[in-house]
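thread: overnight batch results

M.L. [08:02]
morning all. the overnight job finished for the chain we discussed friday. pasting input first so we're all looking at the same thing
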Amino acid sequence: MLRPLNIILSGALAAVMLLSGCGAEESAQAQTTAPATEALTEAPTEDPFSNLATADSVIDESKLKYDYLAIKQSVAEIEAALNGIIEKRRFKGVVYSKLGNDFEYLNACGFADESAHLKNSANTCFYTGSVTKQITAAAVLRLAEQKKLALTDPISKYFPDCAYAGKVTVKMLLTMTSGIPNYVDRDRIKALAPGLAEKISSNNSYEENKQAVLGWILSQAPRFEAGTQFGYSDSDYWLLGEVISQASGKSYEDYVRTELLEPLGMTKSGFAMTDALARQYNGDSHSRPLLYGGVGYSSLGFISNITDLLRWTDGLTDFKVISETSFGEMITDYGNGFGYGVWVNGDRVSSIGSVDAYSAKLSYSTDKSRVFAAFSNYDECDPNFIHRLYLNYLSIFRN
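M.L. [08:03]
and the structure it wrote out:
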């Protein structure tokens, strides 16, 4: 039986390697929306970095079966390779990897707060962007288990004045098949949609910003008929936060904290800024409003660190958060590789997120034999790109 990840991590913390050469990536890579599913590349010969020139050659991990005995015998080599990827790409942040029972890696580099001479570590917190969505999905499923809502409920139950709400169900929000337009403009630098941006302000209260986002979402005409196709929309998961609040009788944040985070010992995670939150470097003024209170909310607003995210992964896969049946529903591919709040590729579950200068990736196999998690607070660093290059390297250990 696999040891819990948070227990395994304690051993890795004693051996954290701080790379002095980390910096902004020379050529920033665009965030991808879904995990790549391209053909398996040929394994490199003598040079372990020979297939790392581009992320376009990324393997499809669902097709890769690892030789864990070879991995056990090559721990130092794999550590050196991952160090090399991080250093070569000048990544700043925190990177964690686990393969089988015999390889675990943790690397932190760059500053959480350069002015205070505080370096990033496993305890540093970051905004996680769309990793938030799997937290929200689990909260919905827990409420369903508690018989406080049903996935078949039309959202007119929660938004009775919305013209299209009777045609959209809670499940359609979970699977992003609602047709509701995105309040985040992803066609440009990630920013608020036109018509909403001018209503959001750092001077507004949390509730004022929330009401502005809610009003904008509910006033939009659907992009397509509900349930007929997939359309990625942060609005779906923002609305689910309000569904959770109404169904539970608590604020979204309080329900997540008391029902999901605290039982797992995730004491450093939540939705409020703390002293443990890394400063962002080289962010963009257009995307910064997503960090204002009430804006990222249940779609983009979750803050966490490596230690807590591993507790989360344990909690989900050990069915401590939601039941085995609910978890199975969550990681079912309902089309376009998307489940409930997560991308699904074979037995691998992943989330990729970014908000302003912050970016994150969490990817794990359902048996926890393969785990990758990374954060950055520098806008030219991309955890997803690092993971893709790392997967290319690991192809030499395929069975």
